[in-house]
Give the backbone structure.
Amino acid sequence: MIDATQLLNANILIVDDQQANVMLLEQMLGNAGYTQVTSTTDPFAVSGLHLANHYDLILLDLQMPGMDGFEVLEALKVIEPDGYVPVLVVTAQPGHKLRALQAGAKDFVAKPFELVEVETRIHNMLEVRLLHRQLNRYNQQLEHQVMQRTAELRASEARFQRYAELSSDWYWEQDADGKLTHWSGPVMDMVGIGAGGGGGWDVAERATLEANIAERKPFLDFVYRRTAANGKVQHLQVSGEPMFDDASRFVGYRGVGRDVTAMAAMFATARP
C-alpha cells in the first residue's frame, strides 16, 4: 500500500508556457501538501529534466510554442525505461483528449481548472504510479532471489556430485521404467542397471537387487558378483534409494556404487 507521506513526497513537474498557469498549479499543490514540486515553461527542457529526476508525475500543457505537448510525450516515451509515461495532460482543447491518451498520456484535465477534480486526478495518478514502481522493485527483488537461489542450488548439486564421485566409482539415476537418466562413471559396463542386465551376473544376487528396486526399497552397500568372459569374478557394491515426486508418485531410483573386487580379494587372502 501507498501511504499519504509517500504521495505528498512524490516528485512532480509542471510544464506550461504560461507562468500564470504554473503559479496556479504550484499554489494548488502546495495547499494540498505536496512538497516536491518543480516547474518549467520550456518544453524543450522536459526530457532532460525527467531523465535527471525521474518524476512521479508530469502535469503537461499541450498548447505550447516551438514544441507542443504531443512532441514532449513522444520524447518522454523514448527515455522512460519501464514504458510507463507518468503524464497528466492539461489543455483547453477537449478535442485533444483522445489523441493525448493515444500518445501515451495517462489522464486528462481540461482548462479552466476545477481544483477538486485536479487534486483527485493527481492523487489517483500518483497512487497508480507509485504502486507501479513498487511492483517493479518487488519483481526485481524476486528475480534476484530466484537467480541467487538457482546459483545456490547449482553449487549444491555440483558439491553433491563431487562428493559422490569421490566416495564411489559411479553415480546413477534411473526413471520409473528402469531407464538410466543421469550417471557418472562406467555405470553401463559395471552395473547394467537399465541396460538390459547383461551376462555373467550371479542370478540370485541380481534377483535380490532387482526385487529391492521393484518393491521401491532402499538398499545400502549391497554387494553382488558377475563373471567376465575371461573367467574373472568382479565384485560390485551399490547403494540406492527410491525417488518420489511432490504427489508421492514413484519416479525412479538414484544411487552410488563402486568396484570392490580388490577389497574382496584382500579379504579372501586374509582368511585363515
Observations:
- The chain has two domains: 4-136, 168-270.
- The longest helix spans residues 115-167.
- Strands lie at 11-15, 36-40, 57-61, 87-91, 107-110, 170-175, 180-184, 219-227, 233-244, 250-259.
